[in-house]
Design brief:
The chain has helices spanning 2-16, 19-27, 42-49, 51-70, 90-107, 120-130, 132-149, 152-172, 181-198, 200-208. The protein has one domain. By secondary structure, the chain is mainly α. The termini are far apart. The longest helix has 21 residues, at 152-172.
């Protein structure tokens, strides 16, 4: 039990590193949450610092997810604390748990009053590590929707929904064998639902027609 708990704690703490908050304070001496949408994510960092630093935040936040799945999960010693009744093998289940912990840390960071980002970039890093092809197509969906609509929230939600759908289409319609498909699909769906949950306020604003469109000009407080 101690081994799994250590992996969860380490993954959560890595996910909790508030990249956008650290960068905006280091570069501008301000808290990104005091500007724009008030969110501690890459989009708001772009508004405060510009698109180059916004992209840097995306990369760093994604690397948190990659690190949890690829590195921290390797701390697993093969001593699962309870009977694994899931369809996953033990190590794959540990990777999923580590990835989820990192995303939870990003959303509810202990280092910033449990007010972080919305989990998109960190979830991207987790999924890229597990379902690379499907996630890359999901990134393409994000870029397409963002460029056409100018709504980052809509693009994020669309990308989150698209990943499990892409997996289903590739496996069941095109007959492409995705390794551990039946194990990974529920995890991808769960991450997508979590992303949709964190964007619930954005969904409400989109439906009401008052969601802010993407603007990389630096916002004033």
């Amino acid at each position: 039990m101690l081994n799994l708990l250590t992996i969860i704690i380490f993954s959560y703490l890595v996910g909790s590193i508030p990249t956008s908050i650290v960068l905006t304070k280091a570069i501008k001496g301000v808290d990104v949450r005091d500007y724009g949408s008030g969110n501690a994510g890459a989009t708001n960092a772009s508004r405060v610092l510009g698109k180059k630093f916004g992209l840097l935040v995306v990369i760093l936040d994604a690397l948190k997810g990659v690190f949890a799945v690829v590195v921290i999960a390797r701390l697993y010693l093969g001593d699962f604390p309870f009977h694994n009744a899931t369809p996953f093998d033990d190590f794959t289940l540990v990777q999923f748990i580590a990835g989820f912990a990192a995303v939870i840390g990003h959303i509810w960071t202990v280092f910033a009053g449990f007010k972080g980002g919305k989990g998109i970039a960190t979830g991207l890093g987790v999924l890229v590590s597990i379902v690379t092809v499907d996630m890359l197509v999901g990134i393409g969906v994000f870029l397409l929707v963002a460029s056409l609509s100018k709504y980052v929230s809509l693009a994020s939600i669309s990308a989150a929904i698209s990943v499990p759908l892409i997996m289903i289409v590739r496996e069941n319609i095109f007959g492409i064998d995705i390794p551990s498909y039946h194990n990974i699909l529920p995890f991808a769906i769960a991450l997508s639902l979590l992303v949709i949950y964190t964007h619930r306020a954005n969904i409400s604003r989109l439906l009401q027609g008052n969601e802010s469109k993407l603007s990389l000009s630096k916002n004033k407080k």
